[in-house]
Structure formats: structure tokens, C-alpha cells
Amino acid sequence: MIHLLFGPPGAGKGTQSDLLKVRLGAVHLSTGDLFRAAIKGGTALGKEAKSYMDAGKLVPDSVTIGLVREKLQGNTVQMVILDGFPRNVSQAEALDQMLIEIGVSLGKAVFLDVPKNVLLERLSGRRVCAGCGAVYHAKASPPKVPNVCDKCGGKVDQRIDDREEAVATRLEVYESSTSPLRDFYLKREVLERVDGLGTSEEVFRRIEKVF
Ligand code: AMP
User: Fold this and answer.
1) What angle do CA 136, 140, 144 make, to 5 degrees?
2) Eight-state DSSP code of residue 192
């Protein structure tokens, strides 16, 4: 069964997907992580995605849909959490088609709801380890040694797309392209709104109840 986690940038999709992976044994499929790995690896996909990502824009559907289709094939047994896909209605329609092709049904579409002022606070302070991907917050949970990852000793830095102009674009893109998915999944009767405020444990317990 495939479940979706969607919401604005900074809602906590990555954190919650990681918890679902560790605690419920789900397969975590994040398009953002796939693109970041491709950029790190210097692949053709990474080169294509980088300029869109750095500017906070969506990578074209033609690239993104193909990538997800490739990753979903063969994953028909386990619970899969799709994080960051779909991000617009045409991707959602493409996903419907893919699910028919692989004979898997859609479980819940969990919308993580977080108000804009909190998103801005989270995104402006977010710092990420370039080595292992561990996430910190400059004020709320900085690494013990400034800019050095507690877990792997890697360099902790701000994501290019967490800088101010890119964040403004990402929030606009969210409003215009991704937010209509709430109606899309409401009509399919799979939408679950989850309050994304509070500690990651509190939010996780709410999501766990939905599943
Ligand atoms: P995320 O890590 O989910 O915040 O995604 C980071 C960036 O990757 C986004 O701002 C987009 O540039 C790109 N991206 C991730 N998922 C998608 C998607 N489904 N469609 C298009 N672009 C995406």
C-alpha cells in the first residue's frame, strides 16, 4: 500500500517519513532526496534538477514522474511513504495511472498542516549535514560544535533552497501548485489532515493513529 505525505515546505515531511521508516518499516521515497543525491553524484538527472531546486521551483513533471515510476516498480509489497510527490494535480493524475499499472492501491494522503509563520521560522533556521543528511535548527537544536555534525562529523550548512528568496518561491509554488491536492484527495476520500505543530514525537503519534 502506498501512502502520501504532503504539505508546505518545512511542514516536517522528511522527519516524519524517517520515523515511519524506522518504526513501521515503511519504504521512504522522497523526490527531494532523490534529486539531492543525483546532484551530489553529479549525474545527468542532478544537473537537470539543480537550477530548478536552487531557485525553489518545481523540477519539470516529465523528469519527476519518470523518476517516481522507475522507483515504484518492484515495490508492490511493502508499505511505501511518498514524500514530496505528487506536488501538483498532473503528478497526482500520473500517480493514479502508475498505481493502476503496478496494481497497488492508494492508502491515505496525509496533509501536514503548519501555519506560515512557523514554516518560515523552521526553514530559515534549518541546517543540514552534507554527509549524512542529519537535520538541525540554528537556534532550537544546533550541533554541539558549530557547523559540525554530531553524528558523522560532516559539514552542517544551510540548503541553498532554504535561503530567503528561494523559500518565498517555494511557498508560492506550494500555494499555487501543491495546495490544490487537498481538494483532489478530499474528493477521493483519502485525505487526512494532521496538525503538524508540536514535537516530532507528537506529530508522529497523530500520523500513526491515521494509519
Ligand atoms: P523537498 O526536499 O521535498 O523540499 O524538495 C526540494 C526540491 O526538490 C523542491 O523545491 C523541488 O525543486 C524539487 N522537487 C521535489 N519533489 C518534487 C516534485 N514532486 N516535483 C517537482 N519538483 C520536486
Assistant:
1) 60
2) E
Each residue's pLDDT tens digit, 103-132: 888 999 999 999 999 999 999 999 999 999
Q: Residue 206's closest CA among 94, 118, 113, 81? A: 113
Measured by CA distance, the residue closest to atom 14 of ligand 1 is 32
- pLDDT tens, residue by residue, 22-51: 999 999 999 999 999 999 999 999 999 999
Angle, helices 44-55 vs 31-40, to 10°: value is 120
- Look-up of cell digits 508540536: 198
Cα diameter, the chain: 49
Q: What is the dihedral of CA 48, 123, 136, 88, to 10 degrees?
A: -50
User: What is d(CA 41, CA 51) in angstroms, rounded to the nearest whole number?
Assistant: 15
Residue 174 in contact with ligand 1 by CB distance below 6 A: no
Kindly state if the Cβ of 159 falls inside 6 Å of ligand 1.
no
